[in-house]
Amino acid sequence: MALQDTANDVLPSWTDGPMKQSIVDFVDRVTQADGPAFVPVEARVAVFDNDGTLWCEKPLPVQADFLCRRIGEMAQEDPALRSRQPWKAVSEGDYRWLGNAITKHYAGDDADLHEMAGGILQAYEGKTIDEFAEEAESFLETARHPSSGQPYSECTYQPMIELLGYLDANGFTNYIAPAAGRDFLRPITQNIYGIPPERIIGSTVSLAYDHDRHTVVHKNALDFLDDGPEKVVRIWSRLGRKPIFACGNSNGDVEMLEFTSQSKPAMELLIFHDDAVNEFSYHAGAERAVDEATREGWPIVSMKNDWRTIFRSQQTQPA
Asked: 3-class SS at 14?
């Protein structure tokens, strides 16, 4: 299947070249009913990370911003909390500590992440699932990215939105399997990604049924961190199938990409953040992923070279 003219291109925000061609060729191979690599529609499963893969994750992940605002409110209500993390970092606007907690996690050091989690789990203890969903949706509709000033809804990667749509149009069922919270994303994924809430896997806090209110509430405990090897377990538990297409950007996605590579045929993509002008340039937290992608031959998508534009708010430049 040859690349189409730009006017009719299915992936207009992708640079015409080997990376884009490899995606088109893969989809063409698995959808040709009389071809040797044909995959039935029911087995065309694609899984995606979210932070840093479908939308921007710097200077800190979107959900971290959401949760930190609640942690800031807690510090205002109880000033004694300001001497402890993560309330201290939030009160001082220390994005470096908050961001480094995630980066250190991907390097195998979870000390700061545990401190952060302690505050996060307290932040919404006792909230009903409906109350939490309303607050998450309101935040995502009104809050703005701290660096660009753009609404978070505009911080999704346009090339990835196009890729999700392209796969969907070719019979794929797309799932999002982020390390971030499942219930934080569910209210908005249909609108921004075209993916319904039941296809969001993600991390979860423990939940309990409240007999008095006849609903489900958040508890002060982590149920599942959807990252690394656990991400694969969650994918299999929810889907009962191995994906044939997977895309991530960090060390926490390596096992998901490995698992997908066991399918034949399969395609694994690693998003590499190397565009300091239009987004951010960073390698921390993705070192192992890049090494394994290089060793295994997984395509590494350069945001600088393989994408013609990054955010939907940016005008696509002529080829």
From this structure: strand
What does the pLDDT look like over 210-260, one tens digit per residue? 999 999 999 988 887 888 999 999 999 999 999 999 999 999 999 999 999
**Fold classified for 6-57+154-302:** Rossmann fold (3.40.50)
Band of pLDDT at residue 314, cut at 50, 70 and 90? low
The phi and psi torsions of 151 (rounded to 5 degrees) equal -60, 145
Give Cα separations from 27 to 23, 52, 71, 305 (angstroms): 6, 23, 44, 22
Instruction: Please list the residues that pair with 174 across neighbouring strands.
Output: 46
Residue-wise DSSP of 209-260: EETTTTEEEEEEEEEE---THHHHHHHHHHHSS--SEEEE-SGGGHHHHHHH
Other Cβ atoms closer than 10 A to 317: 9
Contacts for 149-154 with beta carbons within 8 Å, 24 or more apart? 150/311, 150/313, 152/55, 152/62, 152/65, 153/188, 153/191, 153/192, 154/311, 154/312, 154/313
Task: Report the predicted TM-score, pTM, of the whole model to 2 decimal places.
Answer: 0.88
The domains of the chain are located at 6-57+154-302, 62-142
